[in-house]
Amino acid sequence: MPFYFFNFSKPNKTKGNKMNILNKIVILGFTCLSFSLLPAQTELGQETYWIYTSSNEMKDYQINSIEGDNLVINNGDWDVKISITEIELIALPPKPGFLGQVLGGGIGGYCGGIVGMIPGFIIWIVRGGSTGGSGGPDGSIIFVTGLVGAGAGVFYGSKFGGNLLKGPPETLADMAMWNLDEKKEWIQNSLINSY
Description:
This protein is an alpha+beta fold. 46% of the residues lie in helices and 19% in strands. The protein folds into two domains: 96 residues, no CATH class; 76 residues. The chain has four helices and six strands. Helix 2 packs antiparallel against helix 3. The longest helix is centred in the middle third of the chain and has 29 residues.
């Protein structure tokens, strides 16, 4: 019996124990793969901003402090100083789009359900599954793994679709006509000392 996955005979006691262990390993592996990206999706907690100057556009920067007439910002790798007099607009990054979340969730749920049925079908075959009264397991394992796959597909699909079809950025302050003191005061009170 070199390929015992494809042996359709009724399982004996020893083979049944091996199948039970294999069943648990496949379900555990599928669950770990489905939820492996959850820790990576937690945010660090500090807000990022889009900063438009007269000559540049800087996306996803954290505002750290004001040093003299310069604003100290960080893109996650290094600090950058920009002149506050050059800042024209500060905005929040665009939020995930509703249409993208709905489309991504629907497509992701459908595809995840189809892909999720594959391990269930393999488990059903390995355990000697049948649709009749021959004593093998019924096909409910296929349905359950399909539901797990659909749930994971909806979750990840809505995140992907929402990020793919984003809305416009939310303008916090249009500073094109502000003087230096107004800009410094607003940035200090609204962005740096606000939390």
